[in-house]
């Protein structure tokens, strides 16, 4: 209850803000998307990582309000960049399981899109395999979102326990290969085999695929040799404050 109060207060004092990590096309280093990642500017402790407060927000139910703030802010910011002549790329937003299962999710997201003026194809929702455990429910939620024109990407792909059969049934636009497979990819033939297989499967299923957590040139070389088209990781860019991302946009031109 005390923690809940802190997070609620942080929301009302506007202490949350977003960083954006650019996603790059491997062949020409163009930015093709950005992932919004929330941070908390704590008055005395400095910037607090979501790894610390998201689990608390989920336990206390504040995640609904925090998640709603993140969605609105990410859409507002992307619309502002589009209007300022920035690249016409999507913003991806991470959803917690509770948000994914919240009633009327698609109409509520549509109202955020209308309010901010962002077209639906520029919003991508990152969900995880664990949210797909109940095929009946997830199918109807995903179909609704997809019918609105919103993109769906499967985060941390390869680390969950769900079956592959849902991939052929559900409107999933992109697989994000979890960074645990990338870390040792230059030395570990098993990781390399898994990554190559995910890339090939995505191509056959006509889905986009992006690799996360690329930190070195050597990792990038292995991914490019396996025809991975999109890359996200510290080797290209860490998550950036909005003004620094704008500088990265300007360098693209
Ligand atoms: O940015 P960082 O590596 O510290 O993020 C840690 C974790 O917090 C990641 O798993 C990321 O997906 C999650 N995260 C970041 N922003 C959000 C958000 O807005 N909503 C949710 N649900 N998770 C987020
Ligand atoms: O769970 P999710 O994939 O949403 O987590 C995203 C988190 O991964 C972000 O908080 C970001 O800070 C972190 N991240 C992004 N690129 C890298 C990277 O190259 N290496 C590591 N270790 N973490 C990264
Ligand atoms: Mn993510
Ligand atoms: Na991930």
Automatic annotation (TrEMBL):
EAL domain ranges (all copies): 1-253
Superkingdom classification of source: Bacteria
Protein name as it appears in the record: EAL domain-containing protein
Organism: Paenibacillus soyae
Span covered, complete protein: 552 to 804 of 807
């Amino acid at each position: 209850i005390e923690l809940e109060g802190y997070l609620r207060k942080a929301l009302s004092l506007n202490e949350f803000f977003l960083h954006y990590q650019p996603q790059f096309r491997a062949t020409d280093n163009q930015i093709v998307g950005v992932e919004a990642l929330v941070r908390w500017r704590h008055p005395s402790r400095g910037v607090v990582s979501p790894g610390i407060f998201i689990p608390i927000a989920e336990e206390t139910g504040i995640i609904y309000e925090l998640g709603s703030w993140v969605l609105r802010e990410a859409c507002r910011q992307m619309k502002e960049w589009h209007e300022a002549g920035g690249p016409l790329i999507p913003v991806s937003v991470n959803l917690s399981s509770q948000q994914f299962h919240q009633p009327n999710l698609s109409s509520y997201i549509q109202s955020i899109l209308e309010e901010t003026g962002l077209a639906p194809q520029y919003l991508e929702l990152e969900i995880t395999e664990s949210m797909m455990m109940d095929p009946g429910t997830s199918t109807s939620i995903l179909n609704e979102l997809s019918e609105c024109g919103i993109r769906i990407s499967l985060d941390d792909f390869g680390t969950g326990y769900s079956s592959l059969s849902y991939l052929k049934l559900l409107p999933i636009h992109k697989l994000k290969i979890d960074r645990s497979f990338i870390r040792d990819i230059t030395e570990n033939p098993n990781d390399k085999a898994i990554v190559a297989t995910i890339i090939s499967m995505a191509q056959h299923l006509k889905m986009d695929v992006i690799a996360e957590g690329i930190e070195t040139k050597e990792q990038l070389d292995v991914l490019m040799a396996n025809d991975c088209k999109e890359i996200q990781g510290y080797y290209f860019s860490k998550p950036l404050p909005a003004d620094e991302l704008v500088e990265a946009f300007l360098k693209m031109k």
